[in-house]
Design brief:
The protein has 192 residues and is mainly β. The protein has two helices and 17 strands.
Length: 192
């Protein structure tokens, strides 16, 4: 029996209130294999602040007398702070900090420890993320329980999803790239 993903009615109502014209800042960052999209609405006259995470409203302050300041919220187990600073004239600067690290620097650090493949098979998207330091593998944001098996010059991790066979490989490399990572799906190698 095939199940269909449905969006609850209250989520649709929230999305109707999401005014993209008021979004003044947007950030993308990964946490545990999931990609999160943070949007900030800031009413520069009323001080209204609304924070959206992946299209879901998580914080709303309708009337604020202070137009600058910070808002704290959590994404998974990461403490996030959006700082609003005054800029020249009636402009503002917006910065997101994740566990005390500015988003851009956080993303640079994550890009060094994560390998990510985005694959489309039969109109379905798969996001496979490997944490190089732990060898944890996330498929569409869910941690896989399979463990790597040792083989010639490295490891292979096998798993199946929706009838598709995935093989994540880590092999000895050279001086420029000490370990090479690859992903095979149904026998086809997918490059990053």
């Amino acid at each position: 029996m095939e199940t269909k993903d449905t969006i609850p009615d209250h989520v649709e109502e929230l999305k109707k209130n999401h005014n993209k014209n008021d979004v003044v800042a947007r950030w993308l960052f990964p946490v545990h294999g999931k990609l999160f999209d943070i949007e900030l609405e800031h009413g520069t006259i009323s001080g209204k602040r609304v924070i959206w995470v992946n299209g879901e409203e998580i914080l709303r302050r309708d009337i604020m007398y202070r137009l600058v300041g910070e808002d704290v919220f959590f994404v998974e187990d990461k403490r996030c702070i959006i700082h609003i600073f005054p800029s020249s004239g009636f402009k503002y600067t917006y910065k997101l900090f994740i566990d005390g690290i500015e988003c851009e620097i956080y993303n640079q650090a994550q890009s060094k420890i994560l390998k990510t493949w985005e694959i489309k098979i039969n109109d379905k998207n798969y996001r496979v993320v490997l944490e190089k330091d732990t060898l944890n593998i996330y498929l569409n944001g869910i941690l896989r329980e399979e463990r790597p098996e040792f083989c010639d010059n490295g490891t292979d991790t096998h798993f199946v999803e929706d009838g598709h066979k995935f093989i994540m490989s880590a092999r000895s490399g050279d001086q420029n790239e000490p370990i090479r990572y690859s992903l095979k799906v149904n026998g086809n190698v997918h490059e990053i």
